[in-house]
From TrEMBL:
Source organism of the structure: Novosphingobium capsulatum
Catalytic reaction list: 6-carboxy-5,6,7,8-tetrahydropterin + H(+) = 7-carboxy-7-carbaguanine + NH4(+)
Gene3D superfamilies (UniProt xref): Aldolase class I
Keyword annotations: 4Fe-4S, Iron, Iron-sulfur, Lyase, Magnesium, Metal-binding, Queuosine biosynthesis, S-adenosyl-L-methionine
Name of the protein in its database record: 7-carboxy-7-deazaguanine synthase
Keyword Transcription regulation recorded: no
Function: Catalyzes the complex heterocyclic radical-mediated conversion of 6-carboxy-5,6,7,8-tetrahydropterin (CPH4) to 7-carboxy-7-deazaguanine (CDG), a step common to the biosynthetic pathways of all 7-deazapurine-containing compounds.
Pfam family, one: Radical_SAM
Residues involved in [4Fe-4S] cluster binding: 38, 42, 45
Radical SAM core domain boundaries: 25-244
Length: 248
């Protein structure tokens, strides 16, 4: 049985230790595993190499297509478990792409990890459109849910699924992280919060950007809107530390 991962370089899976850069766990030492494939297509996505393979014409602002053979690696599940256990971190962050598209394989990987390392904390970063399977749900300690707003370019009927948003809002493990590019995006965030009863304590707004200058510029006005609405604001620590690079 296998699982599809993104790569840092051809043939090398994107499994790495770093500080969590975003959301409620920002600054925590973590072990990351980035899976391949996504069901959405954000026009500003900074990991388009996980889904925009040659022949995929879904829009992206860079217009770049990636060769699947060098940007996606299919590995046996037991090899992935062994690679992850080689790191000492007690917090695993599964990211993508959309990790829940591979829930069956991922559940087996996480079950093996937790059996080998009791007390392991597992986070999944998800776009919020896919329900966690019955097998994977009990293995997850924290969901970092990032619903995509209109400026992502995704149709609302694909990106903002009412029953999923309702379920995430009711799950105390789920923290919402909205990517914001302009003040007008915050009106959409406020409307979604009101519609689905998302607690402010579990709602983060984060500036869209892949360089420090853009992030700092947007944080100036975003901080005021976060304060006004009772939201939490998150930076992108890894961008400031390492730039927009893989494996960081």
């Amino acid at each position: 049985m296998t699982i599809a991962l993104a790569t840092t370089t051809p043939g090398e899976p994107e499994i790495f230790a770093s500080l969590q850069g975003e959301g409620p766990s920002a600054g925590r030492p973590s072990l990351f595993i980035r899976l391949s494939r996504c069901n959405l297509a954000c026009q500003w996505c900074d990991t388009a190499y996980t889904w925009r393979f040659t022949g995929d014409n879904r829009p992206h602002r860079d217009g770049q297509a990636f060769e699947r053979g060098t940007n996606q690696l299919i590995l046996p599940e037991d090899e992935v478990v062994a690679r992850l256990l080689a790191f000492p971190q007690d917090r695993v962050v599964v990211t993508g792409g959309e990790p829940l598209l591979q829930a069956a394989a991922l559940a087996r990987v996480l079950a093996a990890l937790k059996a080998a390392r009791p007390g392991l904390h597992v986070e999944i970063e998800t776009n919020g459109t896919v329900a966690p399977s019955l097998a994977i749900d009990p293995l997850i300690d924290q969901f970092n849910v990032s619903p995509k707003l209109a400026h992502s370019g995704n149709p609302a009927e694909l990106a903002l699924i009412p029953e999923r948003l309702t379920a995430w809002a009711a799950d105390p493990r789920a923290f919402f992280k909205f990517v914001v590019a302009s003040p007008a995006d915050c009106d959409e965030v406020a409307a979604l919060q009101a519609c689905y009863g998302i607690p402010g304590e579990r709602l983060f707004v984060m500036p869209e950007g892949t360089d420090s200058e853009t992030l700092r510029s947007r944080e100036k006005w975003l901080s005021a809107l976060a304060l006004e609405n009772g939201w939490r604001m998150t930076d992108r620590l890894h961008i400031h530390l390492y730039g927009d690079t893989r494996g960081t």
